[in-house]
Amino acid sequence: MCEIGGMLRVAREESGRGIREWARELNIKSDHLRALEECRFEDLPEAVLAKGYLRRYAEALGLDPEPLVAQYPVRPTFTPPDVVTPPPRRRRAGLVWILLAAAVLVGLAAWGLLRVTAPPAQGAAIELEAPPPPPPPPEDATLSVTTDPEGAVVWLDGFRLGEAPVSGRFSAGERTLRVEAEGYVTYEAPVSLEPGGQRNLKVSLQRLPAAETPEPSGPPKLLLRFSERAWVRVTTPEGAKLYEGIPKVGSELEFPLPAVVRTGNAAGVHALLGGEDLGPLGGEGLVVERRFDPPAP
């Protein structure tokens, strides 16, 4: 096994998770991850996509992706097996056969020359050579994507192509197209690329509905909104633990007042008190502890 596949496999086994779990989390086909671990680079798509898969997989496993990407081969190499040439037969009869075959070839060449130079007989049919077979169709296809609004981020099979409009040649087959823009609903759909074909797609994104702030009812409470991954612990002023953990990004947690909040990534935790957004608890990666009391009547 090559060094790339060995390091990926060992890191994944240490994570305690299978290839299918990582495939779902990274939105990459499990066959592609398995091909990376087994160094079957010929089973992967074009190098630019395959290196993107390798980089994302290595980062997710906690590895430095740069040395692994640098080792990725431009084209998979194949070493043919050794060819064993049998020893020549040392028999005089072999020389006789060689001379006989040479005489036959000379005779055939002379006969063919006479057929070419001699004029065709009157009324005889002239044989025409069959045209060469057409070349095989190319395996790549051209894909161009424009978006509304302009500048949306375009992804193909989990690999970031850039901001729209984008255009390029990619391996033919069934692919997955995803388009994202802040404030818009993410678009994701399969796209079929025919060998040698060209697809021009325009994706119009729908705006997200405006969030409605609910009217406060009853005693005001503390609402924590998580925009980034962050550990948080919430207790009462007396020290009774109300919550401790790492909530999902985008989730919200509500607590009665008064409450003491401690977090390991203050920039990823936003506080709302009585419907008023107080902003993040602090800067990126800062450990912050803050107490929240009910507003004065």
UniProtKB/TrEMBL annotation:
Coiled coil: none annotated. GO terms for molecular function: DNA binding. Residues 142-207 form the PEGA domain. It holds the Pfam family RodZ_C. The keyword Ligase does not apply. The chain crosses the membrane at residues 95-114. It comes from the Bacteria. InterPro entries: Bact_Cytoskel_RodZ, Lambda_DNA-bd_dom_sf, PEGA, RodZ-like_C. Keywords: Membrane, Transmembrane, Transmembrane helix. Residues 224-285 form the Cytoskeleton protein RodZ-like C-terminal domain. This is DUF4115 domain-containing protein. It comes from Oceanithermus profundus. The lineage of its organism: Bacteria, Thermotogati, Deinococcota, Deinococci, Thermales.
